[in-house]
Protein 1
Amino acid sequence: MLTAYTSDEIRAAEQVLMARLPGGTLMRRAATGLAVACVKALPRVYGSRVVLLIGSGDNGGDALYAGAALARRGARVHAILAGARTHEGGLAELRRVGGRTYDLRGISDPARTEGAKAGTSASGPAKALETDPMLVNLIGGADVIVDGLVGIGGTGALREPYATLARMSAGSPGIVVAVDVPSGVDASTGEVEGEAVRAHLTVTFGAVKAGLLIDPGASHAGTLRQVDIGLGPFLPAPGVVTLTGPDVAERMPRAEPESNKYRRGVVGVVAGSDRFTGAAVLAVGGAVRAGAGLVRFASAAEAVQQVRAKWPEAVTKIITPEEGVREVGRVQAWVLGPGMGTDDDAHALARSVLDSDVPVLVDADGLTLATRDRSLLRRSAPTLITPHAGELGRLLGVPVEEIEERRLHHARLAAAELGVTVLLKGSTTLVAEEGRPVRVNLTGTPWLATGGTGDVLAGIAGAFLAGGLSCYEAASCAAFVHGLAARMAAGGPEGGQAPIAALDVALELPSAIRTLTASR
Ligand SMILES: NC(=O)C1=CN([C@@H]2O[C@H](COP(=O)(O)OP(=O)(O)OC[C@H]3O[C@@H](n4cnc5c(N)ncnc54)[C@H](OP(=O)(O)O)[C@@H]3O)[C@@H](O)[C@H]2O)[C@@H](O)CC1
Ligand SMILES: [K+]
């Protein structure tokens, strides 16, 4: 399991460790790791052009010492001094080995208190920077740009001149290496208030910061490399974690020799309607291919006909809103919602499912119904909701943009406010439940952003719930397996480059599960 921390947690651990070591030891360790990462990223160090963006704190200190190490190996190193102060030891060391500096305070006095919103065009002092020939040449001609503007000490939107430097580095052909965290990304949450550095590589020290795993921060971080500085024993229990393949393999329901279909878990699916049938076919497909012992599907006649045609292994029943799921037979968990509609009949059906005493996964139209009638989610058995940002926004009465901007906050808030487990879909899927670390899933692929993949995910998680996993475990394992199957469908476990359809993800599930469980 990978663990991730907030800035405060890292800082507290660093204090304890620092008190036991000679001064400067941690920065030396960090800078050495950073220099090694830069060497690996460069085709050749000797003669390469390295530009350091230096802020006023220790993040800049790391970059200066690493720059000095690169200069000693023959790189041409230029430090752009952007802060009101500069780390003295680092600067002296860089100068000692022939590194050069360019002090921005000499060319402009930008409004340092103004946050620059992403996308706004530069004006005034920022404009003067953007057209400064020296700066344009340095940044435009760099083989590698080392972002040492701010690290875990950063707060709020990047101020000038940092914001302009972040924007300029995005236009450079050089490799951008972020020191500890891309400047402008909130290291604790992944939130980005204004301009932020877009790194190809982030070299992070001591432990992974949660904001590097969660979008929008995650998409600014590029490849992550962690440098051990000896912090491990001093870190607290993490607030954010990520499951690895072996973690998921260990948790997934197993088919034991004495298993029969009832022992492996019976999942009920209430999805689709006479008008919409595709979502039902995909949700049932997810459940069937993820290894449910038996899938009971209950819906209107047209949806039942389509599901039977595609998945003959499902036991189907045509139901009416009045009778609900009373006569469907015993299940260990329900999946409720995809394509079921949102009218009064759908509401009655949802009520009959949510009245049951087994775990229920609520997705899609089920979430729309719950938005209108929150009492649907008040139940004694566990509930898992699987919204995308828009659905969660409606449930919480918050604009979708705010959900996207503050994913970690809103996933936690929803879990607390609604008393359910929340799987918030997106490029970095989050699973939140009160009293537990938020789980971030990293196996997704941009190709997953296509219609119907959420229905497949609901089916997978439903199968895992029926197999005996808790909402928290079922959601995080399902997100992992779903993302892995999508990657494999798109061309390979590391992510291919072919478009995929939702059904491809369902069909790929056995292969994905096989790659996970082969080593268990
Ligand atoms: N502690 C350790 O043991 C180790 C720490 N290490 C390293 O130290 C880093 C943390 O260093 P840190 O604490 O000096 O903070 P850091 O991130 O460099 O900058 C903070 C300064 O930036 C500014 N600033 C803030 N927000 C801003 C904004 N939005 N826009 C513009 N400016 C902004 C503000 O300064 P001011 O406004 O006064 O100029 C603030 O004081 C850490 O990430 C890691 O790289 C490693 O060496 C390993 C050992
Ligand atoms: K940085």
Protein 2
Amino acid sequence: MRIGVLCSGGDSPGMNAAIRGAVLRGVEVHGFEMVGFMDGWRGFHEDDRVPLDRAAVRGISPLGGVILGTSRVQPFLSGRGDEADIQAIRDRVEEYGVDAFLLIGGNGTQTVAQLLTEHGIPAIGLPKTIDNDLSGTDYTFGFDTAVSIASEAIDRLRTTGDSHRRCMVLEVMGRDVGWIALHAGMAGGAQVTLVPEFPESIEQISEWVLSVRDRGRSSLVVVAEGFRLAGDEAQTTRDGLDGFGRKRLGGVAEVLAPLIEQRTGIETRATVLGHVQRGGSPTAFDRVLATRTGIAAADAAEAGQWGTMAGLRGDRIAMVPLAEAVGHLKTVPEARYEEARLNFG
Ligand SMILES: Nc1ncnc2c1ncn2[C@@H]1O[C@H](COP(=O)(O)OP(=O)(O)OP(=O)(O)O)[C@@H](O)[C@H]1O
Ligand SMILES: O=P(O)(O)OC[C@H]1O[C@](O)(CO)[C@@H](O)[C@@H]1O
Ligand SMILES: [Mg+2]
């Protein structure tokens, strides 16, 4: 069987380990021939492919980024996903002699895996995203690395914040969910953690910051990029949309810091962590999760379990139907937020 491997969406630490896991299992154990398309669907459309064999994946688990590159280039040339678009993919698939795909990506990529499978082009999904917003899996690889980097940033901001008795506001990624903020905030002992799922008022936030000051401490506020103040309609964005029509979230920390300063009289500084939290070497946890995801995906291909995604369920990797994974974000549940919120301030 010849399998095409392709990454789309943003990169996520662990993607290389996932490719290595899939190749070692697929090529060495199941006897597949594997080929990687460069830069997501661009490589597929432009016939830019590389062989994926044991040598190609040697030593790549500790490497950040992804050796194949990734992009948000559309799989469907017209963008409509109609029969002509599907036929164009079928023609290419035939030309390349590819029997099936392993698609590494987030929600959008898993949607494509499902669409392809429904149209008779077999695909299996490998979930990745630092945001941890994919349903059908407990955690996605990349998330643990992002949380570790954000936690370290909190530790560092705290020492300078404490020295100047300032309130420090750290903005982390996560798009429309607050998983990175929640976990990093808990790991770093943040006094306030703000997530998109549960808007809070500036009065409430200022009250927490003042109560921290009243017991002689400085506040560390973690805010997810998708957070909105209670009553605000829109999230904070930079330059509107990106080249693929998506909102460019970011900057909410810079909006909050002066508001907190105004209301509390406490000098406040904002830091936007940005793409630092997506870069560099994956944690051991992410390497292991990604490797196991790759292994499970290769085994699923051997077993013909098309239209599924290799999700983490407890300590097991389970092949879950793609329909369970796509279309609905995995948001922070109220109980998890309340558990943290009781200790704010
Ligand atoms: N409903 C859809 N129909 C067709 N193509 C889609 C659809 N959703 C997403 N895609 C395509 O899938 C690719 C990846 O989608 P997207 O940019 O949303 O990233 P993702 O996989 O969700 O990862 P991330 O977590 O970084 O957002 C892009 O090439 C996009 O064009
Ligand atoms: O890499 P880009 O296109 O700037 O996208 C940034 C977005 O991607 C993510 O890193 C992953 O989905 C989000 O947390 C963030 O909003
Ligand atoms: Mg997406």
Protein 3
Amino acid sequence: MRFSKYHALGNDYIVINPKDLNAGLSETEIKTICDRHYGVGSDGILYGPEASDSCDFALKIFNPDASEAEKSGNGLRIFSRYLWDQSLVLNDEFTIETKGGMVSSVVGEQGKSVSVDMGKVRFTHELLGEPEPTAEVLKVSGREFSCYLANVGNPHCVILLDEVDDGIAKAFGSQIENNPRFANRTNVQFVQVIDRSSIQIEIWERGAGYTLASGSSSTAAASVVYGLGLCDANINVHMPGGVINIKIDEEFFATMTGAVCKICEGCFSSEGLADQNLAVEVN
Ligand SMILES: N[C@@H](CCC[C@H](N)C(=O)O)C(=O)O
């Protein structure tokens, strides 16, 4: 089975084209491929292109725990670059159907930069309601966080703090992701406002854990600080892996632009794709 690996600011994805497979990917295969010791290692799998009735292409997005994500900003930018590398698109705008809605995408700078119109950001986890960010309190391990929910197609919990670092995301990310408040779990962002056009974020991704960057997280965090009047409509989101630019209009439609890099192409062996979780019996 062939694969291509890319990263977008250190958020790495493996692209698998359904035409290179006889059947879909099993849960075990997804977990093994994404595992950094037993597989190639990645923050997720982009399974496409598939046919779409409404868009030019359709894409499925899998997290390393084999759950399916509705949307991924960096995943969509990487998939767009893959389509461009395969000469399936040129430099004009094209559309991609995801479980979390349709996006449109443009590849620029000889593939090195990709912009995606992420659609409308809503300020709940459901797709209806809340025209602006609304604070709610979340209690986790004796600590109270004031958080803002956002939906970019996938769910986000945005927490504003005076300072952020990887420690806070690693300490509280998993507990917030799995908090019973969130029926479908959540992605989590810890956000520090730097000035009116820049924020710093640390990310804990649903189904993936701590990541160096995330496009939908950048979109959610930027939309919340814009909605609260803390930043203007053009925001550079700084993450440990690099910077993504988010532009937001008055109705909270967001456009994301940033770098994409191809790492390698390869072929999985059937031995490597088999269940690696072997129980060894010692008598
Ligand atoms: N890395 C992504 C987000 C991937 C999906 C996420 N883990 C989820 O389950 O919603 C991005 O760049 O947006």
Protein 4
Amino acid sequence: MSSNRESFMHGKQLTKVFGFGQQKVTAVQAVDFDFHRGEIISIVGESGSGKTTLAKMIMGLLKESSGTIEYKGKTRQLKRHAERKAYWKDIQAIFQDPFASFNMFHKVEKLLLDCIKLQGLQLTKDERFAKMKEACSFVNLKFEELYNKYPFELSGGQMQRLMIARIFMLHPKVLIADEPTSMVDACSRSTILDMLLKLRDENNMTIIFITHDVGLAYYISDTIYIMEKGKIVERGTAEEVILSPQHPYTKQLIADVPKIHEAWNLG
Ligand SMILES: Nc1ncnc2c1ncn2[C@@H]1O[C@H](COP(=O)(O)OP(=O)(O)OP(=O)(O)O)[C@@H](O)[C@H]1O
């Protein structure tokens, strides 16, 4: 784990209610969190437990019904365009479906060039080319073979890698990864996880990993939050939560994973 434990993002009593009256759903209920620089946090829960809603509130894509997020020592404000622009420079997301992340009508070269533009960098053609090549080689892709292709001409694994290449170029302070490995085979999955670990190690990035897979959470995280029906029912280091779970829901999640100890080398 990173030795830099600067605490820089807190959630206080975050709540999201959808709908009214009989249709009312409290998707996230009074959630507190405390994320540090360079920390990998997993938010684990079953389908419908509120993980994606929480992630969208952290991203600033959904407005909270109540509660606040403190970021870098101040209450986060996203009302003004300039505030949103500054926040979204620091925070990026990758989703389980790479098709949702790319403009399918833009070739790979344009998708990567947009990252350079987003950062406001003034580079020569050679420098731009070198940056795109570097990002592709970070994820073991060959820029020369891909730059002229559309995203739908790539395999699922190549698209996932391209998403990570974009994160490498943008180097956000916070990355939200919503089940980014769910559409790839086991081999590509461990490569993607290793790339995320490398991103954290090289850039002191905070990574918030959204998953229903407790084994995966144990493999990748420093800290795990367990979410049930909109609430955080347990949180702690990965070892504490997975090896000595306290809450019945966490115990059940772990029991539901066949042979978790063998599959994830838990000893
Ligand atoms: N826009 C919305 N309008 C109404 N209800 C919603 C909306 N988005 C989510 N919900 C409800 O909020 C609850 C939490 O959903 P959410 O997508 O956050 O769960 P999740 O843990 O991410 O699930 P999954 O793992 O299946 O993605 C669910 O009951 C869902 O139906």
